[in-house]
Amino acid sequence: MANYDVIVIGSGPGGYVAAIRCAQLGLKTACVEGRETLGGTCLNVGCIPSKALLHASHQLHEAEHNFAKMGLKGKSPSVDWKQMLSYKDDVIGQNTKGIEFLFKKNKIDWLKGWGSIPETGKVKVGDEVHEAKNIIIATGSEVSTLPGVEIDEKTVVSSTGALELPKVPKKMVVIGAGVIGLELGSVYSRLGAEVTVVEFLDHITPGMDGEVQKQFQKLLKKQGLKFIMGAAVQSVETLKTKAKVNYKLRKDDSEETLDADVVLVATGRKPFTDGLGLDALGVKMSERGQIETDDQWRTNVEGIYAIGDAIDGPMLAHKAEDEGMAAAEVIAGKHGHVNYGVIPGVIYTHPEVASVGQTEEQLKEAGRAYKVGKFSFMGNGRAKANFAGDGFVKLLADKETDRILGAHIIGPMAGDLIHEVCVAMEFGAAAEDLALTCHAHPTYSEAVREAALACGDGPIHS
Ligand code: FAD
Ligand code: NAI
């Protein structure tokens, strides 16, 4: 047993960042993690492994589709799936070991095992009970399944199973056209699987700007992904190594079936708080199972904080990280701040899709007068040279003040380009501020400037 200023439960991007910041601020800190390795969903079975597979499969796609055009001839590479998985595992290992190193460097104790809170100020791990003046719950989220669909992680898989399939399936059905479905669907489609995405709504990626949704779906279709929209999955039957996906089309209630070798269930995630003992402590939870907090990440129980996927807001690693840093600062008596209006969202397909701030649909609904500056990557020299002309930058600004309200990018390196707009929004900038900033040529970033110019007197290259 030991006494700590802070015990963080969970070592995902929320938890490990909170622990490091607490230690940096001079607090004696421990972090409880039940997994074999640190880093949570993100490093072990989420962001990092999925990006490794997206990177590898994208290289194959480039070799097959663009190398010859640039005069790079020869046999296109074949897929050694075992090696690709081992590359992915190496990447995971490097990242999770990196957190272990950071814990040692910052003198954070890793309490190995599953933690619970038997009473305020105490955290139990195995048979040991530790004392903590403050507890941060950062236990993340788990896959949320559908009624009638049982995940066996073999034939019917969640994202976790999809990151380690024994072989590339011939036919894959993805349930849900959200972020996971489209990223991992893209991976397997590029590797040769016939991928069909079944989506309940009439559009993909709910919550995203409508124009981006349409362009994104068009480009994914061009890449070979098939879509069945407006379809509610009723059940999945597994027959040895095959599966049948039964769905109902919402427009006429007709019932249809799809065969698959592997079914990926990607219909969302839910907070994971099992075994913590929150009910007995009287910690307030929302109807959706999220831990309720105030704007300083305090729960209703003194000394207990919560951050990341376990609380309200977008289930994103960087949102969890920001909350981790801010909660640590609050505990250390400083000011912790997260600007929820400027949290970017990125989908790491090819092209990438990125957004920040308000969508055009949200502005319309709010009755806000706005202007749109749009610029196609077809007018960007660098993008044309790199076969990356598909897509556009769309900037939304207040009609009167020109203040930037949102940005939506589909195109090369969109996930990096978006940060220029994030910084601008943090400074309360106007579109004109971006338009007046000199951008190096030839870069993809020039497309952002051109979209800003389009909010004023007009872009140059269109
Ligand atoms: P988590 O990362 O879920 O970590 C929680 C940790 O707490 C886990 O390790 C768990 O074992 C541990 N834990 C839980 N209960 C206990 C307990 N009682 N005792 C001890 N330990 C416990 N987000 C992005 O921003 N970008 C991406 O590219 C991205 N890609 C993703 C891809 C996939 C396939 C998935 C599934 C998610 C992805 N996400 C991505 C989402 C991202 O992973 C999460 O938003 C993020 O991990 C949340 O961080 P967290 O710290 O709240 O929780
Ligand atoms: P999601 O919420 O993004 O998408 C789920 C999709 O499934 C929605 O389009 C929904 O309409 C659909 N759906 C729900 N029920 C259905 C049914 N019965 N039949 C057909 N379709 C149905 O959830 P997803 O993709 O599982 O991702 C979970 C979380 O992980 C997200 O919140 C996301 O933020 C995070 N994540 C982030 C990534 C990133 O930032 N690049 C990558 C992967 C995940």
TrEMBL record:
InterPro entries: Class-I_Pyr_Nuc-Dis_Oxidored, FAD/NAD-bd_sf, FAD/NAD-binding_dom, FAD/NAD-linked_Rdtase_dimer_sf, Lipoamide_DH, Pyr_nuc-diS_OxRdtase, Pyr_nucl-diS_OxRdtase_dimer, Pyr_OxRdtase_I_AS. It catalyses: N(6)-[(R)-dihydrolipoyl]-L-lysyl-[protein] + NAD(+) = N(6)-[(R)-lipoyl]-L-lysyl-[protein] + NADH + H(+). NAD(+) binds at G176, A177, G178, V179, I180, G181, L182, E183, E199, G268. Residues 4-324 form the FAD/NAD(P)-binding domain. Residues 343-452 form the Pyridine nucleotide-disulphide oxidoreductase dimerisation domain. Disulfide bonds join C42-C47. Its EC number is 1.8.1.4. Pfam families: Pyr_redox_2, Pyr_redox_dim. Binds 1 FAD per subunit. Keywords: Disulfide bond, FAD, Flavoprotein, NAD, Nucleotide-binding, Oxidoreductase, Redox-active center. GO terms for cellular component: cytoplasm; transferase complex. Its cofactor is FAD. FAD binds at K51, G115, T139, G140, S141, D309, M315, L316, A317, H318. One of its GO terms (biological process) is 2-oxoglutarate metabolic process. It comes from the Bacteria. The active site is at H441. The keyword Nucleotide-binding applies. One of its GO terms (molecular function) is flavin adenine dinucleotide binding. The active site is a redox-active disulfide bond. Belongs to the class-I pyridine nucleotide-disulfide oxidoreductase family. This is Dihydrolipoyl dehydrogenase. It comes from Roseovarius bejariae. The lineage of its organism: Bacteria, Pseudomonadati, Pseudomonadota, Alphaproteobacteria, Rhodobacterales.
